Amino acid sequence: MFVRTKGFEAKSSATLFECDMEGNDFDGNARNKTKKTPKRAAGKTICQCFMLTYKDYFQHSSLHGVQYLGEETRPKKDRIFWLFAFLLSICCCATLILSAYNKWNETPVIVSFAERSTPVWNIPFPAVTICSETKRVLQSQSNNTFANLYSQYTAEKHNSHVFQPPNVTSKELEEFRTMLHVCNTHSIQQDMPLIPGDNLDYPKVLERMLPPFDRYFFYCRWLSRFNECDKYFRPTLTEEGICYTFNGLRPTDIYRKGTYQYHQSAENVSESKWSLDKGYDASCDVETYPARVLSAGARSGIFMTLQSFEQEVDYACRGPVQGFKVLLHAPDDVPQVSKQFVRIPMGREVLIAVKPNMITMSEGIAEYDPQRRQCFLGHERPLRFFKVYSESNCELECLANFTLAKCGCVKFSMPRSLDMPVCSENKIHCYHMAERELLVREFHRVRKLNAKGASLDGRPMETACNCMPACTSLVYNAETSQANFDLHEMLAAEGDTDFLRDYPGSQMSRLSIYFKQNQFITSKRSELYGVTDFLANCGGIFGLFMGFSILSLVEVLYYFTLRFGVNLKQMYKVDSKATAECKI
Question: What average pLDDT does the segment 418-437 reach?
């Protein structure tokens, strides 16, 4: 395949010409040059072979413009022009490829609309958590209401460090201490007087104060079937006391083992066959857990009548706005009613049309680092207290950990292990301020790192909580409409005079929750710029500016490995033969 070139023959003749047996030139003069060592001779041979291969490559290269640099007969000005054009093309390629790499590295994921719409039966009906603003049944014959005790409590602020009201039973004092945690906690100052007493089981006291369930949840209808509301709702412990949740997962399905779980009674519910990442199992029937519906509209939703009583309203605890708070959330999320809710006032009919907002992910982005795709898979961010990762659960756990570190205890409604201390009344101000302090610290930390240029390739900095959204998430948006609901006029029109005698002071509201549409458009996290796109873009840039391809790379490797080795071997053979001829 390879033939001896003219360069090799010229070298052989020159060698014979320069040397003889006695070390003299052919003209008889002794050589004054120092005899070359074998290493120097080998280095010179390799250098000559490299230059020979270099010229051969430039004369026969498939890259555009390179062959002009290898033509020795071409004028020097032409070769300088083509060298400048070649270097300019390399600079342009490097600039554009760097831009393409930054785009691939910084924004590999895009959130766009999915190709197909999703029917509502593929997702669970939203979990509905309802909290009454009435936290306890007031005893009209007692003067030790929350308002009276609270006025005495605030009056003692500058007079004593210990609050010991006279003529108050231990039961009333326990209830007052518990109400301080669920009423307007922002009014509790840091230097409030201490309340003597043992550590309380706040959920147990809340249960004791709780108004009867059937008095406030008058009747319910689910999927066009009327039934008692207690068959659908489960008591839930929240930051606003004990509320009631419909279609939420059981505490054993949400919390890890060893975490405090509030529940009043054992529930005969089958195991959940739904997860946010995989959806419902293929074996699930129409009626499953958590529940789902087959269509949109009020008939396929939940309808209920809520009731409160004028004589039981406690304005000192919850303020002038009474009624109920309603929170729609995913079944695997812990409800945090005080953050986002829909208010249901008394004497109104409220319709809530639900519009799901679901974000899924493609399989390709699972290989990316979480900081690059800006979301967590379920197994990438295990939580201490929760089995299921979600952004809200993660933030709640982070708040509990921060509160424990700052105050030495956690609020009774926060997730906690069985051995964590629960904050008493003297720590209300502490855990109330801890939430704001955590947010301020997160804000200043990220801003400081970004100001120092420590951001990760233009992506948001990882916060101390490290609570990015889950890659698959489900949020229920609500559209509300209201109308007047006059109970007294309705009873008068029907001639019913017995109802108000049985339920004196009754105030009613009606609530209907349903999906707005049978199908909805989901969003999807997918690759904006994958490895294939990056390589294709680089190939297009190289081809446009230099005519470079994979075969061009193979050609370079061929010339400077295989071709270079064969040429070098032939040159060594020529040198050996010339040396032998010199000796002869």
Answer: 91
